[in-house]
Amino acid sequence: MDVAKIDTILKKYNGDSDFLIEILQDVQTEWRYLPVDLMRHLADELGVPLARVSHIATFYKAFSLEPRGEHEIQVCMGTACHVKGASRVLDAMSRELGIEEGQTTADKKYTLEAVRCVGACGVAPVVVIDDEYHGDLMPDASAKLISRHMKEGAR
Amino acid sequence: MTQINFANLGSAAATEQKRLAGYKAMLMVCTGTGCVSAKAFSLQDALKEEISKRDLDKDFLVVGTGCNGFCGQGPILVVQPEGVFYQRLKKTDMVRIVEEHLIGARPVEDLMHRDLSSNEPIHKMDDIPFFSKQKLIALRNKGLVDPENIDSYFARNGYTALKEALEKGSPKSVLDEVKTSALRGRGGGGFPAGVKWASCMAAVKKTGKEPVVVCNADEGDPGAFMDRSIIETDPHTVLEGMCLGAYAIGAKEGFIYIRKEYPLAVTRLEKAISQARDRGLLGDGIMGSDFSFDIVVHRGAGAFVCGESTALMASMEGRAGEPSPKYIHNVESGYKDRPTVLNNVETWANIPVIVDKGGKWFAAIGTGDVSKDPWGGSSGTKVFSLVGNINNTGLVEVPMGITMREIIFDVGGGIPDGREFKAVQTGGPSGGCLPASLLDEPVDFDTLTKAGSMMGSGGMIVMDDHTCMVDVAKYFMEFLKDESCGKCNPCREGTVTLYGILDRITSGKGVKGDIDELERISRVMEAGSLCQLGATACNPVLSTLRYFRDEYDAHIDEKRCPGKVCKDLITFTINDECNGCMVCAKRCPTNAISGEKKAKHTIDQKECIKCGICNDVCKYDAVNVE
Fold first, then answer.
1. What pLDDT shows up at residue A152?
2. CB-CB contact of B350 with B241 (8 Å)
3. Per-residue model confidence as pLDDT tens digits over B607-620
4. With an 8 Å Cβ cutoff, are A123 and B221 in contact?
5. Do A73 and A62 meet the contact criterion of CB atoms below 8 Å apart?
6. Which segments of B66-149 are extended strands (E)?
7. B70 to chain A: which residues are within 8 Å by CB?
8. What is the largest distance, in Å, between two alpha-carbon atoms of chain B?
9. A-chain residues within 8 Å CB-CB of B299?
10. Residue B357: Cβ-neighbour burial (10 angstroms; 0-12, 13-18, 19+)
11. Cis (ω within 30 of 0) for the bond into B323?
12. Which of B226, B345, B239, B348 is nearest to B295 (CA)?
């Protein structure tokens, strides 16, 4: 556990437990999951029960108790994306990566997620890879996008 | 950094206006999320480079703006002040725009929008039907300001309403204008903002506690991105609106609760707040007055229920976002038990204009008579995200009372690919699907509710005849069962059970009595849920049952999906139009398609997983879905 990193995060929010959700988001970004010993440490530092930390960690979708992949692939399942075939896009991604929705590839490179509306409905269907938006992405194109990404990553 | 006060706001605006007037033209590149997904940032860089290369920086200014609204045509560039609109641009088009339009004064027609029927290029943005029927209040600055530069907001007379209120008005005068405007909450509930603010002030008097104002930017409705766009486009209008609200009710603290799924909006919001602080428009003694107010941003972490007011307050305190019973309203005891005014982004964005132009001006727009009772109608405009199976997808702001038909067919340009309109979904997961027979109804809070849907925050998802309405109901129930916080029984169990029945029906295993069961469970959820998420969760089911019952019957009785969507009820075959181009065979993920080159192909039904890719890639309409 890198205490210095946690201290920097805590300092950013003045150790204020009102910002517990934001603190955990920063931890999630840094570690790609919420390690249990780290949650315990945060509870101590902020003077809040561990139950409250774990309640948040399991309530909100942004958090994971297992390490997520190096790249996060989010397939938007908003209504506009749905009527334009988002579930078929998700299936295509899942086939290409060889994992189910919610899983991470064995090499820990990719996590595939179905997410709620990312608010880019004008260019549905949408896939977000590491915060980069890809719009108007039909199933066939989405499979190509992933295979290209994997090839580029391998180089 | 010059501090803004009553005396110099006007000159700050004039200075920026003069600076901008010094350019021959301004090139407004849309950098809203939609256009960014189509590489708008690299386009902006390429344009800057082309201009610099020719040493034209003194004549032409490139500005990255927030969402232009016409997302389906992105990336977009508008040349101002002449208002020439370019769409679907590539980096390579920048040379032509600079050489032909900027230097040669010959606008590039083949990069313009074309009329859907005549196919003629339309030069001016205002002449494009998508824009010409709109009326902009909340989005008045879209495409005209740089969201990351506060001076740009000054140049559009930003913060003038706040200045006038602080200098010449009073908290009461602000409240009176908002009351007169009859502005109803744009987050979905439609509760009159003036009434809410007045109740909060009464609670302050009673309890002696300090009030707070909160902006709900946790726009969770799938298919809706109005709030995201307002913040990405014109964040200061939201801040100014909140300042005015805080001044009216006597609050010193404000909060904005925004989804973390909107990274660009979060960045622009934080930048705007810091610029406003630097210029003395947030903090102690705003503009030299004795009014002090500041805003803190809280980021949500992915929970739809946090848009619900009590859940949002819990989340803002760093807890799980579980709703509480509403025996006591937030206006009396909200954030940390203090009197709280919670309005959404669009509501706040309307406030500066209402204070500036007057409540009467605002109340004159829209439907009904609101002069005595704010519930007497729906005043002002509403921003909608017009998306789904529609030609002109994007963000539109239209006067209340406009008909669905005008929005979908005039502004939206109708349904693409020669398909038929089937339904329009409004109100998010709490709303419903409305059929073609209701297209001529006016769009306002009360008409939509009466029709079994609701206004909601403004998502308007258009569905064509290739949509299955039972599948749509199942889609929403899947969403709601996942997003139900699980605290109360009717919602937790009800959503799961409804989903199970809908899943069975769409798999071809529906039985007689399923529809009665859907209705019975819906009634229990309506009556017994703790918050509106559960109480309205049945709306997508009930509205599709009300208007599209024949589709449920087709699934249950005939094991047929009329929309040709439900995988278990459809088959893909290849017809005689096939010329053996082999594209489908190459792209089929399970190699289920076989056939010689230039000969008709066939699909092996045992291998087919019904992914639909063959149909997507076929250019000859040779794939039948039955």
1. 85
2. yes
3. 999 999 999 999 99
4. no
5. no
6. 77-80, 84-86, 113-114, 121-122
7. 122
8. 83
9. 21-22, 25
10. middle
11. no
12. B239
Confidence label for A153 from pLDDT (cuts 50, 70 and 90): confident
- Over residues B28-83, the pLDDT tens digits come to 999 998 999 999 999 999 999 999 999 999 999 999 999 999 999 999 999 999 99
Residues of chain B scoring pLDDT < 50 = none
Q: Sheet of B381-388: strands edge to edge? A: B394-399, B381-388, B459-464, B421-426, B432-435
Q: How far apart are CA B160 and CA B171, in angstroms?
A: 16
Segment holding B383, helix H or strand E: strand B381-388
State the complex-level ipTM.
Answer: 0.94
Residue A121 contacts residue B387 (beta carbons within 8 Å): yes
Average pLDDT of the segment spanning A125-137: 93
Residue B116: its pLDDT value, please? 85
Query: Parallel, antiparallel, or unpaired for β B25-30 and B77-80?
Result: antiparallel
Q: Dihedral (C-alpha) B4, B6, B7, B12: value to the nearest 10 degrees?
A: 40
Query: In which residue are the tokens 């963000």 written?
Result: B395
B154 to chain A, closest Cα gap in Å? 28
Amino acid occupying residue B463:
M
What is the spatial distance between Cα B501 and Cα B519, in angstroms, rounded to a whole number? 11
pLDDT at A58: 95
Q: At what angle do helices B171-181 and B235-249 cross, to 10 degrees?
A: 110
* H-run or E-run covering B25: strand B25-30
Pairing of strands B212-217, B253-258: parallel
Pairing type for strands B432-435 and B572-574 reads unpaired
Chain length of chain A = 155
Q: CB–CB of A117 and B223 under 8 A?
A: yes
* Residues in a beta bridge with B367: B378
Interface test with B, best of A17, A26, A76, A79 (most B CBs within 10 A): A79
Cis peptide before B352 (omega within 30 of 0): no
Q: List phi, psi (to 5°) of B399.
A: -65, 145
Confirm if A49 and A43 have CB atoms less than 8 A apart: yes
Q: Is B281 exposed, middle or buried (0-12, 13-18, 19+ CB in 10 A)?
A: buried
In the prediction, which pLDDT does A3 show? Answer: 83
Closest by Cβ to A21, choosing from B71, B220, B301:
B301
List residues bridging with B256 in a β-sheet: B215, B297
Out of B302, B385, B389, closest to residue A121 by CB: B385
> How far apart are alpha carbons B242 and B254 in whole angstroms?
7
The verdict on a CB contact (< 8 Å) between A22 and B298 is yes
Contact between B25 and B81 (Cβ < 8 Å): yes
Distance from CA of B623 to the nearest CA of A (A): 16
Residues B88, B93, B97: CA angle, nearest 5 degrees: 105
Q: Can you name the residues that pair with B216 across neighbouring β-strands?
A: B257, B344
Measure CB to CB from residue B304 to each of A22, A116, A134 and give the nearest one: A116
**Tokens 């938006």 correspond to what residue?**
A133
Task: Establish how many alpha carbons lie within 13 A of residue A118's alpha carbon, considering only the half-sphere containing its beta carbon.
Answer: 30
Cα–Cα distance measured from residue B569 to residue B171, given in angstroms and rounded to the nearest whole number:
62
Rounded Cα–Cα distance for residues B473 and B477 (Å): 6
| Coil/strand/helix, residue B435 | strand
User: Model confidence at A155, in pLDDT bands (50, 70, 90)?
Assistant: low
Q: What is the pLDDT of residue B1?
A: 78
Distances (CA, A) of B56 to A44, B19, B49, B85, B96: 59, 16, 10, 21, 15
B33, B129, B260: which is closest to A25 by C-alpha? B260
Cα B506 from Cα B560, distance rounded (Å): 9
